[in-house]
């Protein structure tokens, strides 16, 4: 088997194994796996409403995945996407309701505010890393908590002791009556277009600009890059900032699309952390991130339908979904297995 | 060669898909038949089906959501309904983004009345109610502005007042505690009533207050209870859903270590006597402030079934309506204290005492 065939086979085989193990879990706990997977399938693709909501769920995952992937490519582990997302969410919601502007200015302004806010939050970690060698993992984890509680405090004071900001103005909303009608009142919004544009932006920065080449070079080998005359510190700060920009936009998707406001959160949204898995599944490439986000978003949204249509309890569903992702993530094992298999055949 | 192998894989995947699809189709048919049979059994009236969407606590939070689910089940039993389509059902929300899809999912299964349980769900219910003017909704603990939504509120402050009286009377240290969930108006009402009640019987009492910020984090509840008990508090009233389960486990640990310790918890929403049970003779649940979510669910479902759906209105259940009350203490509260509690209860019901909804700052 050639490498190309293996490359295509690995994700397919991993998903199938994941589904089989998930089915065993359902059988053992006394549920019908066929019903379960049909419920999952219709939950994702069943009708226009489900498809709309699935795409809506995928959108922030793409952006969170891009944020993590971009940092990885430059040798940084941005575990702080969650915090950057929360700050971006807050910024977008605030700009969304506090200003009255025509849509053509308001919406881009709100998106920009989220991008800048997220970028700033990541910049802090990048700056600390570049200047004081503070490891970005520690800095970003701590900044996650800081972001969560600062956002909660700000929301509280903005809303006079309430638990959510005012609803954003229509002019800042990513939602549209057209999409709602098309998808039977789902909460699909135009954010997916923003996300796809950002996929192109990341590809362009990394592959088509000298700056992107430098960023990647720093990622491959810091010392070699420095020896070649590149400023490592500058590139670290820049990489974190761009990564944070993607994360901030992911927050804007929630603020301007899904929720139309920012509410006090008891804990993390999880999107930022899932973004790490999305990026790794997608091998840190822009197109791969789309694949990873689609898998994550579909499973997460489709899983809601399993208790609904097949009566499988939430907890079992969580186990099944985790198993599928687990097997997809451990694609390396399957790759080795496939290679051995094909070698044996060739030997005969 | 390569191409042929790839084709083989592709076709086997397709075949698997077709087999799966076939299985699905087979499974659906008998179900339809089943439906027909069950319809044949009850030709007299079409069942009025109800369903609910939980808040993040889930139906086994031993408190608010569970109480609502018990109401749904009770209604189902009353009218011989079975769980599932055309009967009764629930869906759990794991976070805020689940409200909307869950509510819509139940609508699509044609339930006649859908309950949204929890303050946080107001926006989602309102939006969906406006999109689906034919559907009927009930929202518990918040108000929604739509003609097809009935909003259900409770005077938690009145029940909490009595809990405050009980706590202040039972405390030996003069220190009592309140553990709240998220800092929202509903929980503020518990808080305000508790403080008022405690101060009414002991103006000098020290009341420690902590909002944990979550309804589903038992670990936070445990830590909070630990710091309160450690500082001398001996009665804690929790209004924190699943977070409150941590308060119980902390109290039980303390009581187990030192059987003479004066450690009490006042439960919330449902009768949490079982939660405080250590063994047959020891229980740290002083009483519970019952919030009649289950009764309200049954009440509204029956009204809607009989064509008297009070859409667009807000129904408030207080002490006078038996919507809130204290649970049987099973002897934990001595008679003299109970007498004081009953006295205040009469005063509140008669309107002599009006309990504020917000804590005075």
Automatic annotation (TrEMBL), chain A:
Presence of keyword Membrane: yes
Keywords, ordered alphabetically: Cell membrane, Membrane, Transmembrane, Transmembrane helix
Transmembrane segments: 7-31, 79-99, 105-125, 137-155, 187-206, 236-256, 316-338
Designated name of the protein: Branched-chain amino acid ABC transporter permease
Native organism: Lysinibacillus contaminans
Membrane topology recorded in Swiss-Prot or TrEMBL: Multi-pass membrane protein
Subcellular location field: Cell membrane
Presence of keyword Transmembrane helix: yes
Pfam families: BPD_transp_2
The organism's place on the tree of life at top rank: Bacteria
UniProtKB/TrEMBL annotation, chain B:
Membrane topology category: Lipid-anchor
Keyword Membrane: yes
Leader sequence residues: 1-25
Gene3D superfamilies according to UniProt: 3.40.50.2300
Localization terms from the record: Cell membrane
Keyword Phosphoprotein (UniProt): no
Family recorded in the similarity comment: Belongs to the BMP lipoprotein family.
Protein name in the entry: CD4+ T-cell-stimulating antigen
Taxonomic lineage of the native organism: Bacteria, Bacillati, Bacillota, Bacilli, Bacillales
């Amino acid at each position: 088997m050639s490498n190309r065939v293996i490359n295509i086979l690995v994700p397919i085989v991993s998903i199938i194994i994941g589904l089989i193990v998930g089915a065993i879990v359902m059988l053992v706990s006394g549920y019908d796996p066929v019903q379960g997977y049909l419920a999952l399938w219709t939950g994702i693709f069943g009708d226009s409403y489900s498809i709309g909501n699935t795409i809506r769920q995928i959108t922030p995952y793409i952006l969170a995945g891009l944020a993590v992937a971009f940092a990885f490519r430059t040798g940084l582990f941005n575990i702080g996407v969650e915090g950057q997302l929360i700050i971006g969410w807050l910024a977008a919601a605030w700009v969304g309701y506090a200003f009255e502007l025509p849509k053509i200015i308001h919406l881009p302004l709100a998106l920009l505010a989220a991008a800048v806010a997220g970028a700033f939050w990541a910049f802090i970690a990048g700056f600390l890393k570049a200047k004081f060698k503070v490891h970005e993992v520690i800095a970003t984890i701590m900044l996650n908590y800081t972001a969560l509680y600062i956002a909660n405090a700000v929301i509280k004071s903005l809303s006079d002791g309430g638990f959510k900001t005012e609803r954003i103005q229509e002019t800042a909303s990513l939602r549209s009556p057209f999409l709602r009608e098309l998808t039977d009142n789902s909460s699909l919004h135009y954010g997916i277009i923003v996300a796809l544009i950002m996929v192109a932006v990341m590809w362009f920065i990394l592959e088509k600009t000298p700056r992107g080449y430098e960023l990647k070079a720093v990622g491959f080998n810091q010392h070699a890059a420095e020896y070649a005359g590149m400023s490592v510190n500058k590139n670290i700060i820049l990489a974190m900032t761009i990564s944070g920009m993607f994360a901030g936009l992911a927050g804007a998707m929630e603020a301007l699309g899904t929720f139309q406001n920012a509410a006090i959160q008891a804990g993390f949204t999880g999107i930022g952390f899932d973004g790490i898995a999305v990026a790794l599944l997608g091998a840190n490439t822009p197109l791969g991130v789309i694949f990873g986000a689609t898998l994550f978003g579909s499973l997460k949204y489709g899983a809601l339908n399993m208790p609904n249509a097949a009566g499988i309890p939430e907890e079992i569903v969580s186990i099944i979904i985790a198993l599928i992702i687990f097997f997809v993530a451990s694609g390396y094992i399957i790759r080795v297995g496939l290679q051995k298999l094909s070698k044996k055949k060739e030997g005969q | 060669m390569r191409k042929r192998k790839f084709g083989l894989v592709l076709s086997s995947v397709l075949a698997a898909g077709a087999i799966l699809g076939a299985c699905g189709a087979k499974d659906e048919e008998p179900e339809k038949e089943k439906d027909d049979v069950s319809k044949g059994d009850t030709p007299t009236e079409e069942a009025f089906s109800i369903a609910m969407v939980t808040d993040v606590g889930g139906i086994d939070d031993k408190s608010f959501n569970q109480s609502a689910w018990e109401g749904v089940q009770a209604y189902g039993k009353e009218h011989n309904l079975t769980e599932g389509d055309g009967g009764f059902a629930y869906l759990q929300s794991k976070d805020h983004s689940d409200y909307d899809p869950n509510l819509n999912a139940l609508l699509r299964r044609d339930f006649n009345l859908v309950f949204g349980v929890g303050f946080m769900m107001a926006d989602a219910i309102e939006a969906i109610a406006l999109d689906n003017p034919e559907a009927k909704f009930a929202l518990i603990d918040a108000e929604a502005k739509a003609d097809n939504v009935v909003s259900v509120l409770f005077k938690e402050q009145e029940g909490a007042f009595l809990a405050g009286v009980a706590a202040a009377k039972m405390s030996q240290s003069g220190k009592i505690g309140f553990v709240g969930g998220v800092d929202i108006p509903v929980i503020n009402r518990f808080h305000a009533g508790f403080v008022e009640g405690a101060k009414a019987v002991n103006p000098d009492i020290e009341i420690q207050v902590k909002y944990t910020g979550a309804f589903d984090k038992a670990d936070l509840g445990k830590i909070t209870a630990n710091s309160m008990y450690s500082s001398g508090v001996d009665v804690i009233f929790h209004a924190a859903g699943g977070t409150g389960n941590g308060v119980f486990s902390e109290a039980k640990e303390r009581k187990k270590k030192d059987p003479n310790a004066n450690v009490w918890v006042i439960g919330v929403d449902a009768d949490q006597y079982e939660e405080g049970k250590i063994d047959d003779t020891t229980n740290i649940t002083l009483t519970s402030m019952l919030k009649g979510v289950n009764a309200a669910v049954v009440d509204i479902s029956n009204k809607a079934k009989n064509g008297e759906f009070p859409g667009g209105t807000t129904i408030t259940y207080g002490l006078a309506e038996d919507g809130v009350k204290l649970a049987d203490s099973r002897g934990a509260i001595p008679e003299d204290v109970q007498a004081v509690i009953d006295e205040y209860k009469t005063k509140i019901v008669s309107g002599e005492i009006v309990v504020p909804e917000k804590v005075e700052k």
